Known about the structure:
The complex is a heterodimer.
Chain A: H1 3-16, H2 18-57, E1 60-65, E2 69-70, E3 73-74, H3 85-91, E4 100-114, E5 119-127, H4 131-134, E6 139-142, H5 147-151, E7 156-159, H6 161-167, E8 174-177, E9 180-188, E10 202-206, H7 207-213, E11 224-229, H8 235-249, E12 260-264, H9 265-308, H10 310-318, H11 323-360, H12 368-395, H13 398-403
Helix pairs in contact in A: 1-11, 2-9, 2-11, 2-12, 3-8, 9-12, 11-12
Chain B: E1 4-15, E2 22-33, E3 37-41, H1 48-55, E4 63-68, E5 71-72, H2 78-88, E6 89-92, H3 104-109, H4 120-130, H5 146-158, E7 164-168, H6 176-191, E8 195-200, H7 203-206, E9 211-216, E10 219-225
Parallel strand pairs in B: 3-8, 3-9, 6-7, 7-8
Antiparallel strand pairs in B: 1-2, 1-4, 4-5, 9-10
Amino acid sequence: MSLLRTFDTGMRGLLGHRLRSILTTLGILFGVAAVICTVGIGTASANSVNSRIAALGTNLLTVSPGSTVSFGVRGGAGSANTLTMNDVAGLEDKQDAPDISAVAPVVSGSATLVSTSSNESTTVQGTTASWLAANARVLSSGIFVTSKEVQEHAQVVVLGATSASDLNAVIGDQVTINGNPFQVIGILTSSGSTGFTNNDDLAVIPITTAQDEVTGGSPNSVQRILLSATSSATIGSAYLEADQLLLQTHHITNSASADFNITSASTLASTAASVTTTLTILLASVAAISLLVGGIGVMNIMLVSVTERTQEIGLRKALGATPRDLLRQFLIEAATLSFVGGVLGVGAALLAGVLVPRLANIAVTITATPVIIAVAVAAGVGLIFGVYPAARAARLAPIAALRAE
Amino acid sequence: MAADIIRLVDVTKIYGEGDATVRAVDGVSLRVQEGEFVAVMGPSGSGKSTLMHILGCLDVPTSGEYLFAGEDVASMNERELASIRNRRIGFVFQQFHLLSSMSAWRNVELPLLYRAARDRKQMALNALAQVGLSGRVEHRPNQLSGGQQQRVAIARALITDPTMILADEPTGNLDSKASREVLDILTGLNKSGHTIVLITHDPNVASVAERVVEMADGRIRDQVAA
């Protein structure tokens, strides 16, 4: 039989069993679409976690005081107050620390802020102009604290997004911090929470003013120093440069007895990355199971369909069809169903990729790999289980096939 | 003298092994000449169905010689047998064996799909006209009566202009009126020159043939010219 006529016969076979053809196509369609969407949601979640972590500033290093040793007893971390403005000046030196792009000393304390309409208790951070760059934060309006304002102990404040809305404060408003009047000069954009702290609930004022009116203490000592590396790639060398400089200025030769700690946000990033990997593996397993279930569905329909048609195979053999004719007919039928189901499945997944984010606030990122794998597996299963039983039936004696019930 | 269409010499078909061995056909010799109408008659278990499978090239004998229109069928491979069935034999089955998803003319056309043929639809329409079903060409089998379905099957057997029409209990599933119609068609075909072999258990049906071959226990018991 010619290939064209076999194709024609195959198509008529499919149209003659419309319901079964539609069910098989649906089985493949849903299997393929489910896998693509599941993996798509997983990819989107992973991307969103990664971008949130990137927003935290993975370039950020935090220097905090270490422990003191008094009378041979080591105090807790932070018990020493060893960081000074001298350290800040040393770290700002571009020659000694070429990979550090911004250095911001921080003193912080809790204070009560009062505006004309409301009041709230929040964290007040005293810092310098570099804070914005070191933290990778952005202003939504106004300006940030300037070096001049730091020198002048200016009574100015930059509010986090939450604090600003709680206080009902806008640029130019007057708020009091612990009873002292401050002018609102800027408001930060929201950066969300990072697990432990709400990054939007804070007030930032010049470090000099903070030492005067909020935290007290020596004007030379700072609680923390925030450093940002020039890029996430140079964070390692920035870390080493900071470590060397501080050991030097503190006259410590043995790094094990350092009176400071340097931590990085990339530690958090690597934790998050491993969480994301776990999440991706979870979703990929779910996808694999849905592919398996879809595959078994297709396999069932194909097996039943070919078994049901054993009599047809017997009749065609009696009328002169060779095993090759029959094999080609069933191959064309199964290939068509697999192909149509696969294409519709990809179409459905693309449609879902557009609709789901609008309806359910779930991001879906469709990538090529799951599309290829899903289509290949579904089509492969359809082909194998559409053709194998047919090939077996085609080898039966025609009379045995004709009599099969 | 007319040529032999069928020449069976000492044909035996054995099923099963060891103690379960069944000699379904046991040393049968038979000749059918061109243009004959032969009925093979016998009760169930007599071996007539097995003989029909061998005659129809649907099965090969365990031993013995089978020449079909001069060709040695016993030694043919599956492809060659398929070709013989397609070109030279028209089957009519008790269960009709029509494909339910196809119209009458598509069913009749089926054998032509496995050979080179042009104007398949026209040939199918002609064959349906021969069995008096010109008005039913687009009907599905389930829209036809039993007698009409069997006539579609006869049209399907006719379309290839076969050397022999092999009818296996063609009236087994039909009422007496439809049986009469089907047998009339077969008789008419024989009159117009077709060789027909009819398998049946019913002496009334067998009586339409020119010659009746009676089978029992795998052997030919008697041959009577009607």
